[in-house]
Amino acid sequence: MTATAQISGAGLDEGTSQGTGAPGTGGPAAQDSKIGEVSQRSLMVRRFKRSKLAVASLVILILMYLGALFAGFLSPSDPAAVNQEFKYAAPSSWTWSGGPAVCRTTQEIDPINISTTYVTNCDDPIQLQFFSRGYEYELFGFIPTDRHLFTVPEGRVLVFGADGNGRDLFSRTIHGAQVSLTIGLLGVIVATVLGSVLGTISGYAGGATDTVIQRVIEVIMSVPTIPLWATMAAVMPQDLSVTQRYFVMTMILSLVAWTGLARQVRGKVMGYASADYVAAARSANASGFRIVTTHLLPNAASHIVAVSMLAIPATILAETALSFLGIGMLDPAISWGVLLQDASRIDVLQQYPWVLIPGVAVVLAITCFQLLGDGVRDAVDPYS
C-alpha cells in the first residue's frame, strides 16, 4: 500500500515537475492547453476553403454583385436609350489603334430582302476613352455623376450588341442584375424568416398549432409552383410603378418558397426539443421564447443557412421565368427575364443570337449559387 502510494506520488511529482512551467515560460502544459482551441466558425471556414469550386463561385458572385452596384459606372450607354439606327446591331468589332478601339458601324437597308444590314469599317476606328463623361446617372441611387469606366466620343460601343429597339445589351444586362440578383436574395431572406419562425413554432408547440401549420404547408406545396406564381402575378394591378412591382414580386416569390424550409426546421426543432439541455432549461423555469432563441434556433442555424443558400437560385429562376412570360417585371423595368423576351422568337434568335447573352448571365449566376450552396452545406455539416 505504501509502495503504491510512493510510486503514485513520485509519478505525480514527476509529471507535475515536467508539465508545469513558470509563468510566461511556455512550458509543455501551456502548449498542450492550446491544443484543440479552434472555434466552430474557424472549422467551418476551413472546410469551406477546401472546396475550390465554392470559393471560385463566391468570388464570381461578389464580382457580379459589385457590377450590379456600380452598373451606371460600368455602362457605356444609357440602358433605356432607344436608337433605331442600331436595331439588332451585332456586337462591336474591336481593333488596336494606339490603344483599344472599336470599328465604325453604319446601317444600310437591303432593298432586295427589305432587311437591315450593318457595315463595319475598321480603317478609321474610334478610340476608347476611359473614365470619361457620358450619360448622367445616380451612383448608389443618390450621387449624381456622369463618369463611366469607358465610352467612345462618337458613335456607340456595343459589347453585347443591341436589342430590337437599338438599346445596348451590355448596359441592360448589367442593370438587369440589380433586379434579378437582388430580388432572389430579398425573396429568400423573407422566406427564410417565415420558414424559420413558423417551422420552429410548429416543432416546439406541437398539438393543434403544429397540425394547422402543417396543413397550410401541404396545401401550398400541393399547388404547382409556376401556375401559382403566374396567378399571383397576373392579379397585380398593371399601373404599378417599377419599384412597387419589384417589392410585390419579392413578396410573391417568398410566400411560396418558405414551405420547404419550415418543414425541415420543424424536424430539426422536434429533435432538439427532446435533448437534455432543453430539459435542463425547462427545469430551470426558462420561458419558451428563451428556449427557442437560445437553444433551438442557434442549433438549427447552420442547416437554415445551407438550405437558404440553395434556395436563392430557384428564386432567381422563378423571377426570370415570370418576367420572360410577361407576368413578372415589365418594361421599362430591366431584369434578365425582361431582356430574354426577345429570345422567345425563333426567327429573331436565328438571325441575332446575341440576344441570348442575358441567359448566359442567368446560367452563370445559378451555377455559382448552387456550387456555393454545396460548399456552405458541407462546411456547416458537423460530421464532414
UniProtKB/TrEMBL annotation:
Compartments reported by the entry: Cell membrane; Membrane
Region (Disordered): 1-33
GO cellular component, one term: plasma membrane
Keywords for this protein: Membrane, Transmembrane, Transmembrane helix, Transport
Principal location listed in the UniProt entry: membrane
One Pfam family linked to the record: BPD_transp_1
Domain annotation ABC transmembrane type-1: ranges: 177-373
Membrane topology: Multi-pass membrane protein
Domain of life assignment: Bacteria
Transmembrane segments: 53-74, 179-204, 216-236, 242-261, 296-316, 322-340, 352-372
InterPro entries noted in UniProt: MetI-like, MetI-like_sf, OppC_N
One GO biological process term: transmembrane transport
PANTHER family: OLIGOPEPTIDE ABC TRANSPORTER, PERMEASE PROTEIN, OPPC IN A BINDING PROTEIN-DEPENDENT TRANSPORT SYSTEM
Family classification: Belongs to the binding-protein-dependent transport system permease family.
Protein name as annotated: Peptide/nickel transport system permease protein
